[in-house]
Amino acid sequence: MTSGLQERSPLACLYHWEKTQPQTVHFVQPTGGGQVSEYNWTQILDEVRRMAAHLQSLQLPPRSQIALLGKNSAHWIMADWAIWMAGHVSVPLYPTLNADTVRYILEHSGARLLFLGKLDDWPAMQSGVPAEMPIIRLPLAPEARGEPWQGLIAANAPLQGEPDRDLDELATIVYTSGSTGQPKGVMQSFRSFQLCGSLLNELFPLTAQDRMLSYLPLAHVAERLIVENASTYHGFKVYFAESLETFVNDLRRAKPTMFFSVPRLWTKFHLGVCAKLPLKKQRLLFRIPLLGRKLKRKILEQLGLEHVRIAVTGAAPLPAPIVAWYRSLGLDLLEAYGMSENFAYSHFTRPGDAKTGYVGPPNPGVDCRIGDNGEILVKSPAQMMGYYLAPEATAEAYTEDGYFKTGDMGEIDRDNRLRITGRVKELFKTSKGKYVAPVPIENKLGAHPKLEVVCVGGANQSATYALALLSEDARKHLREGGDRAAIETELGSLMQQVNASLDPHEQLQFITVVKDVWGIDNGFLPPTMKIRRNIIE
Do 189 and 168 meet the contact criterion of CB atoms below 8 Å apart? Predict the structure, then answer.
C-alpha cells in the first residue's frame, strides 16, 4: 500500500490515484461479443466528478439515500463513488431480488433516486420501483424510463476540488439478504471502509500489480470489501464478468492473482473437473511426480486460476474434502468468516497456516469469544453503526459489553482458530428430545461428487433426513436416460458412511433427491448462495 493511504478515506484514495497514476487502467468492462472497454483513473474520475456535480445540482437534502440496482460493472462502482462525492449515502440492492423486496428496500431506506444498471430480469423487478422515483440508467442498463448516464455526463462540468467525507459519517446502508423475514438495513461508516482498506493489508499484502475479477454481487459486503474497497486503497486492476456463459473466458482474460468465491462455485468447479476426470484416477495420476505436477497445473489453467496467489472462500461452509482437493492442486484456498454487521471483517485463514474446517484466527483488531450457549460473539473495528430505523433490533444484536451476537455456533482451538459448527436457530430437536446441528452433517454429505447442495432436517420427527440436489452432471446423466439405480446405490453407501461418524440420535433415516433446482430465482437460495432452510423444508 502506498504510504499514507491507510489513514485516508476512500475518496482521498481516488484523488491520490487520479494525481499519481492518471493513465493507469483500473477497470476492464466487457461490452458484448468479446469486446471490452478500458477506463484509466483520469477517465474514471472525470465521469465520477461529472455525475457528482449532477447529483449536487438536484439539491437533495444532505446525506440523502441513493439506491443502486444492477449487476457488477465499472459504472456501478463509479456511481457509488459519485454518490459519496456528492455528499450522499449509497443503498445497494441485489440484482436478483423480487419486486416486493425491491419496493420494501426503496421505501424503508427513503431512497430519493435510483441508479439502474445491468440486469437479467428487469421486467420482474420493475413494478417494485415507485413510479415517482427518478432513475439514472447506467451503461448496459435495460430499456427503462429515466435519464442515461452518458447524457448527464456530457451535460455537466466536473466537480472541482477534493470534496471528502468524515470517517464517522454514514457511507452506505447494506440490506442483509436474510433467510427469513424482511431484510435489515446495516449502516456502515466510512471508517469501516478505511479500517478494512488498511488492516487487510496485514493479512495479505496487495499491490497495484494485482488483478481481480468482480462477479459476486457488489451489494454484498464481501465483494464490496475485497474488490471495490481493496482496489480503491491499493489501485489494482479490476475486471468484470459479462455473463455465466462467458465466465471462464472472463476469468482467463483477467488472469486474477486474487480470487474470492462462495462455496457453491468452488463446488461447481470441483464437480466439473471430477466429471471429466474421476477422483480415483486423479489420485493415481497425481502420484506420478512429473505428470502429477503437469496435470495439476492444467486443471488450474482450465479453471483460469493458474495465476492466483490468494484464493478465498466464504459466506457459507465448504466441505473439508473439497478444500483439501484445491490445496492438493497447489491453490492455497483460505477460508474466511464475517457478516454485513462487521463489514465481513472478522476471521481469516492465514496463508501457510490453514486448518481444514476452520476459518482462521481473528483479524487484526478483532476480539472473539464463545457465549454460554455456544454462540460466536465478535467485537470488530468495522462494527456497524446499527440497523437503520431499528434501534430495538440494534440493541438486541449486542451483548451488554458490546460484542455482536452472530447467531452462529462455533469452537475455538488452542491456536485461536475458529470453527463454525452451525446456527443457533438452526438447531432442531427430534421427537426423541435430542438436539441436532444440521450444518456439520450437510458438510459431510456435500463433499460427494454427485451432490451439489444438501439440507438436513428432522424437527419433531423420529429421525433426521437429508434433502439433496444432485450435481449438474448427475442431473444431465438422468435426463439422458442414465442409470438411476446406480446413483441410489451410491447415495445409500454415502448415508451409511456418514451415519457411522454420527451419534445415534443424529443418524439419517433417508436421503431424498429433489426434482426442482434450488436457485436464487425460485427463492430457495438468497443472493449469498446459502440455503433458505425453512423454504426448502
Answer: yes
Joined grid coordinates for residue 83: 454518490
Name residue 442's amino acid.
E
For residue 269, what are the contacts with CB-CB under 8 A and spacing of at least 6?
A: 303
- Residue 41 to residue 13: CA distance in whole angstroms: 11
Q: What beta strand segments (E) does 161-254 contain?
A: 170-175, 185-189, 211-214, 237-240
Q: pTM for the whole thing?
A: 0.86
Q: Which helix (H) or strand (E) holds 264?
A: helix 263-276
Contact at 8 Å (CB) between 323 and 330?
no
Q: What is the distance between the alpha carbons of residues 477 and 281, in angstroms, rounded to a whole number?
A: 20
> Residues in the chain with pLDDT < 70?
1-6, 177-181, 431-434, 527-529
E strand or H helix at 376, and its extent? strand 375-379
pLDDT value of residue 474: 87
Phi, psi of 98 (to 5 degrees): -85, 170
Q: Distance (Å, rounded) from C-alpha 421 to C-alpha 75?
A: 39
Return the pLDDT at 423. 82
The three cell numbers of residue 448 are 460427494
pLDDT for the residue numbered 156:
98
Please name which of 275, 272, 270, 276 lies closest in space to residue 328, comparing C-alpha atoms: 270
289 phi-psi bin (left φ>0, alpha ψ -120 to 50, beta other):
alpha
Would you state the pLDDT for residue 2?
Answer: 52
CA distance 164 to 344: 24
The C-alpha cell at 113 is 433516486
Q: What is the DSSP string of 101-157?
A: HHHHHHHHHT---EEE---S-HHHHGGGS-TTS-EEEPTTPPS-SSEEHHHHHHHSP
Write out pLDDT tens, residues 183-196.
Answer: 999 999 999 999 99
Q: What is the pLDDT of residue 131?
A: 96
pLDDT given at position 525: 74
- Exposed (0-12), middle (13-18) or buried (19+): which is 4, by Cβ within 10 Å? exposed
Give buried/exposed letters for 453-490 (b at 16+ CB in 10 A, else e).
bbbbbbeeeebbbbbbbbbebbbebeeeeeeeeebeee
What's the rounded Cα separation, in Å, for the pair 525 and 384?
Answer: 25
